[in-house]
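anyone seen this seq b4? input:
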Amino acid sequence: MVTWETTDGLVPYEDAVARMEAHADAMARGEAGELIWLLEHPPLYTAGTSADPADLVDPDRFPVHPSKRGGQYTYHGPGQRVVYVMLDVGKRGHDVRRFVQQLEEWVISALAEFNVTGEIREGRVGVWVTRNDKPLTVTGQSPEDKIAAIGIRLRKWISFHGISINVEPDLDHFSGIVPCGISEHGVTSLVDLGLPVTMGDVDVALKRSFEQVFDDTIA
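predicted toks r here
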């Protein structure tokens, strides 16, 4: 059974990583169960294992934390729901690719509860929305903005790190980096899309969608 935990306030990044790693190690020893941790961070940038230093546009703007998760540079800050997933991928099929797909499906299903169509794009990590309300690009296509990021790490088949969904962050804060190394597309949030959604609303949608995507996958 998965335990859900929500922390109010802003959790320092180093504290969150230490907590995740300790919990993942305890799970690997059979001393702790699966945990999904919902929280927010103060404004900061993280550099994943594939981060290109050239993508850190404004290195002095916010603290920059090296991260052992996959991916490139990401932003975390108030108004963004961070979801750290400490799950037993071994018991869930030993299939990392499928696990990442399930994380994507989970986000897309949660967004659908707000009538937002999240999509996956080949070669681009995360979840995207097509902006039909914006002018066409120079190629004649509707622009696409990123609404959720995904980056995980596995240790002994236990996952940690996870996903982040933009509910109502300051979107200007993303301008200090090239988010996930992609410069030709923008970033959006649920509130930016005109939806008066609260963090609590998103949490409810995440819990309901998780049951649809994950519960029948554990051995």
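The radius of gyration is 17 Å. The first strand starts at residue 3 and ends at 10. kinda curious what u guys think
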